[in-house]
Each structure stands twice: as C-alpha cells, then as structure tokens.
Amino acid sequence: MLEAGKEEKRLAEAAGDFCENGCTPKITVVVDGGWSHRSHGHRYSANSGVAVIIGKRTKKLF
Q1: Secondary structure element (H or E) that encloses residue 6, with its range
Q2: What residue segments make up the domains of the chain, in order of their start?
Q3: Is the separation of the CB atoms in 27 and 18 below 8 Å?
Q4: Could you give the CA distance from residue 46 to residue 53 in angstroms, rounded to a whole number?
Q5: Global pTM?
Q6: How far apart are the first and last CA of the chain?
Q7: What are the Mutator-like transposase domain coordinates in residue numbering (predicted)?
Q8: Residue 43, CB half-sphere, CA atoms under 13 Å: how many?
Q9: Percent of the chain with pLDDT over 90
Q10: d(CA 16, CA 46)
Q11: Spatial CA neighbour of 58 closest among 2, 5, 14
Q12: What is the CA 40 to chain-centroid distance, rounded?
C-alpha cells in the first residue's frame, strides 16, 4: 500500500500537479466501501466494513 501511494505521489510531482500552496502533490483516488446490513426480520448493522482506495494514475490499490 505504501509503495502505491509513493508512486502516485511521484507521478503527481512529475506532472506538476500541486495544491495551491505549491508544496503538496495533488493525487486523485477512487474510494468505495460498504458494510453488512440486514433489514429482513431483524435490524442489524455490522460494526466493521470494507473499503478500497485506488490511485487514478497507477490504478493500484492503496
């Protein structure tokens, strides 16, 4: 995960993609997540879930 983040940062720097302060590289990611939820018969929501973060440039999981 750390290597994917470092690569995404490096590519943003190489493209000259920085925040307004000019110091922080801007990276774009796609995020999705979910958790178990049962509504038939009983009310139940899981205390934990899953999430995934994918770098736009590298298409790698963070």
Answers
A1: helix 2-14
A2: 2-55
A3: no
A4: 21
A5: 0.74
A6: 4
A7: 1-61
A8: 0
A9: 74
A10: 42
A11: 5
A12: 32
Give pLDDT, residue 16: 97
Taking the CA of residue 11 as centre, how many other CA atoms within 13 Å lie in the half-sphere pointing to its CB? 15
pLDDT mean over 31-38: 88
**Count of Cβ atoms closer than 10 Å to residue 55 Cβ:** 20
The pair of structure tokens assigned to 6 is 């470092």
Q: What pLDDT is attached to residue 44?
A: 76
Q: Are strands 44-55 and 29-38 parallel, antiparallel or unpaired?
A: antiparallel
Structure tokens at 50: 């899953």
pLDDT of residue 55: 97
Mean pLDDT for the stretch of residues 13-17: 97
